[in-house]
């Protein structure tokens, strides 16, 4: 097998947003993980070939993160050739890992091995102490389970992987693995792997259309003051343990195709996206959980993440791997008794208005700056919790239908998300419509919030969404 190579590594300095993630990952937020449950053994050579092809096609996947102490800056250093190695765990090693993860709270939750391995990987922080050395940004592991099942896990640094990247990575990997299964070794030996000789794509700040991020010094100061002051007024979920070391845990929300269809129809009828309904359900559920007196008003934060690829210059496609999302923070006052659809419309309209004013571009630098200041000074947040809002959602829902590649590789299930036990919201929702089911991976910091607490919140969100879909949101949602 011939491989085109370059003579020497290439690289570039990280952008402002990427730099924020370099600092956030050190504290435990931004470890992106894809966990795939398969009923067919992932042949080591086939999997390695598929991963190497991915690295050849996407420079960021064959890059390492380098820190320069003299200038206190980070850079991507891109290798001329693929280098990822697959770490394998046999049945015994996997059993030991799962046994160690089974605390009393986890036993009571009866979590699947896929779920537990996802949580385990979310808390494997390969980048702690990375201020001194170069560190890989892309890791692969395979866990053997009983009954001829395996879990394949990909773990990536958020500076090089937003949700769009993760979704494209999963689809490309399954296609490549399917091709590997179909090809004979002789044919494979004759295929040439094409290397993308380019460097890592430019940072998002370098691709914003001219003038779209421009803001006067006075306006920037006013906006930053507004964000700072409002953050002190935001209501949080009750903290269970704000002092102990934290890790990331996950609760899964599943809604059947019939109810999912009704919820999506309700969104479509009102000209909104699912993110508005998810945000509204979370605010109503959180407010109800606090048992406030009737009509006691509380202000909550909702962060909506939007993919900027299509509006950059030049525009990028989903196959441009990296981090190209921006965040919009909106606050909403809840007094109790709100109707789901009415609140969902309000949340989505607020987000859309911010986008129309290009604030998702012009406020990017402000939010990155404040994010870094909060990480440096946790005391600026309630109980030093580093919570930035109640919930984060994505503007666009991932749509995924089972296909021949998934069947060929033997994919039974998968889960994907990013860690959040550093600076982050109380709950981050990664939503997918898969074969008609609404499948949300809901991520939260533990023990700041308990599994029981978050399971109850997610269960309440599910009831609120299903009820609204069935009654078209005509009745107020009560505790």
The low-confidence parts are 1-6, 184-193, 473-479
Number of structural units classed as domains: 2
CATH level 1 name of the largest domain: Alpha Beta
Rough outline: globular
Mean pLDDT figure: 88
Distance between the ends: 63 Å
Largest sheet geometry: 7 strands, mixed
- The CATH architecture designation of the largest domain is 2-Layer Sandwich
Structural class by SSE content: alpha+beta
CATH topological fold name of the largest domain: Chloramphenicol Acetyltransferase
Assembly state of the chains shown: single chain
Give a count of the beta strands, DSSP E runs of length 2 or more. 16
**Beta-strand percent range:** 15-25%
- Return Rg in Å: 22 Å
CATH superfamily of the largest domain: Nonribosomal peptide synthetase, condensation domain
The tally of helices reads 16
Q: Helicity range of the residues? A: 25-40%
């Amino acid at each position: 097998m011939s491989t085109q190579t370059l003579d020497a590594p290439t690289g570039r300095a990280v952008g402002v947003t990427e730099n924020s993630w370099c600092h956030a990952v050190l504290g435990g937020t931004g470890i992106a993980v894809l966990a795939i449950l398969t009923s067919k053994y992932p042949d080591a050579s086939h999997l390695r070939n598929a991963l190497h092809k991915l690295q050849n096609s996407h420079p960021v996947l064959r890059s390492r993160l380098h820190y320069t102490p003299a200038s206190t800056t980070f850079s991507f250093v891109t290798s001329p050739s693929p280098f990822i190695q697959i770490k394998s765990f046999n049945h015994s090693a996997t059993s030991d890992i799962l046994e160690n993860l089974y605390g009393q709270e986890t036993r009571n939750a009866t979590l699947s091995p896929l779920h537990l391995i996802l949580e385990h990987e979310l808390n494997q922080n390969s980048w702690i102490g990375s201020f001194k050395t170069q560190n890989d940004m892309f890791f692969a592991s395979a866990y053997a389970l009983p009954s001829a099942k395996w879990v394949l896990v990909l773990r990536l640094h958020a500076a090089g992987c937003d949700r769009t990247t993760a979704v494209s990575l999963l689809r490309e990997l399954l296609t490549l693995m399917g091709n590997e299964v179909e090809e004979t070794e002789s044919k494979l030996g004759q295929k040439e792997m094409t290397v993308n000789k380019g460097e890592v794509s430019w940072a998002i700040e370098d691709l914003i259309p001219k003038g779209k991020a421009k803001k006067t010094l006075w306006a920037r100061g006013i906006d930053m003051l507004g964000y700072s002051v409002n953050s002190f007024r935001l209501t949080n979920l009750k903290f269970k343990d704000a002092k102990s070391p934290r890790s990331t845990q996950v609760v899964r929300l599943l809604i059947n195709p019939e109810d999912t269809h009704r919820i999506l129809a309700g969104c479509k009828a009102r000209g909104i996206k699912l993110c508005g309904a998810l945000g509204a359900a979370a605010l109503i559920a959180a407010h109800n959980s606090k048992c406030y007196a009737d009509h006691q008003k509380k202000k909550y934060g909702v962060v909506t993440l939007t993919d900027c690829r299509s509006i950059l210059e030049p525009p990028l496609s989903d196959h441009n791997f990296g981090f190209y999302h921006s965040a919009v923070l909106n606050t909403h006052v809840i007094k109790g008794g709100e109707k789901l659809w009415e609140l969902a419309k309000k949340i989505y309209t607020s987000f859309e208005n911010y986008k129309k004013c290009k604030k998702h571009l012009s406020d990017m630098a402000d939010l990155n700056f404040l994010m870094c200041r909060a990480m440096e000074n946790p005391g600026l947040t309630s109980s030093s919790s580093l919570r930035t809002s109640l919930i984060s959602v994505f503007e666009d829902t991932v749509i995924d239908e089972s296909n021949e590649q998934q069947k060929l590789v033997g994919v039974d299930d998968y889960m994907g998300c990013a860690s959040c036990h550093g600076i982050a919201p109380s709950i981050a929702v990664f939503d997918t419509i898969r074969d008609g089911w609404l499948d949300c991976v809901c991520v939260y910091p533990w023990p700041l919030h308990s599994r029981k607490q978050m399971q109850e919140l997610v269960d309440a969100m599910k009831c609120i969404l299903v009820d609204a879909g069935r009654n078209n949101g005509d009745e107020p949602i009560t505790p």
